[in-house]
Design a protein that fits this description.
The complex is a heterodimer. By secondary structure, chain A is mainly α. Helix content of chain A is about 55%, strand content about 5%. Chain B has one domain: Amino acid/polyamine transporter I (Up-down Bundle), CATH 1.20.1740. Chain B is an all-alpha fold. Classes of the chains: A mainly alpha, B mainly alpha. At the A-B interface, strand 1, helix 1 and helix 2 of A face strand 1, helix 1, helix 6, helix 7 and helix 17 of B. Strand 1 of chain A pairs parallel with strand 1 of chain B.
Amino acid sequence: MNAKQKRGTPLHPSDEELVLSSLEPGQLAEAKKQRIPRRSLRKSELLVLWFLRVYLLFMIVVVVYQAWSGTH
Amino acid sequence: MNLFAHLKTRGNLVITHEDIDRAHDRARVLAARSRGNWFSRFRLLWLLIGPGILVMLGENDGPSMLAYAATGAKFGIGFFLPFIVLTFVMAIVVQEMTVRLGAATQRGHAELIFERFGPFWGWFSMIDLGIGNFLTLITEFIAIRAGLGFFGVPPWAAVLSALALLYTALMTHRYWTWERITLAIAAFNLVFIPVALLTHPDWHSVGHAFASWQPLPRMDQDTLLIVLADIGATVTPWMLFFQQSATVDKGMTRRDVSFGRVDTALGAALAAAAALATVIATTPLFTHHMSAEHFQAAEFAQALRPLIGNIGASLFALGIVEAGMVACVTISLSSAYAFGEVAARPHSLNLPVRQGKAFYSVVFLLAVLAALIVLIPGLPLVYVVLVVNVIAVLAMPPALAFLFLLANDRELMGDVVSPTWANVLAAAVVVFLIAAGVMFGISVIAPHLFAAAPR
């Protein structure tokens, strides 16, 4: 096992032991740098996402209008 | 297939300062789990609570407490008491999914959306989060300024003290220490309970309201604004991003999911108690027909002073300050976590400043900018407070769609993929939020449709 501490003082053996015994492999900061593969969205999912996007934009316009009419 | 099954601790292993700090916290969890007695079980709960309570009490923030205060002052005890409990049930349904996602993937919410669905959808959700968080952060400083203003503290000193507290909490460089300090401050949210008791509430009316959801409010634009503000006071996009990132930063794993659920439910119960207490506390303003139309946080305290005395009014103002302070910390962090995840920069409260410059800079830059805006004289801050919860409700359905897709992704989630009952409840929450938003939209575009509606 070749363990090293990134950008710091040399790793103490007890720290290495502690990390390996207490953390799951996926919890290490280095392991989190591995990318998760992309998933393609189905047509139905895209439709829902676009619907919600349009809904949000429309409702923001409504809120802005309400705030504007409130000040006038 | 579990996407994380291939990760092994063999080869050229790199261990960071962040890993060592987290390992210390996890070692205590593993030690408590290895013992089987009831005391260890209690200790395990003590060690694993945090993100759920913080997210729920964090969401009892400045504009939320203002919304609850306005609810009590405008409608008194009635429909809104059980309605607020319902909104917290919705919050539990939604936030529980983030616990499972964080524990299963060890990734934050922003990171998962970007990597799984690509930058196009990732940027949409980041823009929603960024705008919503910044507007909300401004309102937290408004609450702090108003609350401390009740005690005669000048605005510059109020925002400076909030920034100093934020700095103190973060400069511990340990997630665990930060979490415990923030939890201790967040406990002050319950100060609204003694304030409510000082008003000598009519418990028969409270019981009747819970049993019957009566009296119902008149269905008009003002009522719908309060409905949306109360929903936005409980379920908002930043909560999804914060709790998932905090779950990961705390080091929770699949084995801890059940404790994460308890943490979330406990947080919701505490936050609901504070919210209901606030409605009850301001009900005397409704009973005495005092108009609270344009009240800001501290003005509620001033208006309540003749009814509940100096101590009660001071506690109310202190509660508003606490609400703003805790949310200021949690919302800034939610933005910083998301930034770190998307920009692939280190993002953890276990990082020393040298290794987490970008992470800590985002927290402070956002907070300082929001604080400066609040100090600009003559800005119509009251409008920001009023619309911020409404915007949160409107932005929630798109955020929930991503959460729903991720929590049902078997490759990511493995054995903690969303069960059918969780999906049904989540879908019901989305439909409810969209319906509330559409009703509000109709009330703005065609107010006459609601003006004629009977009580």
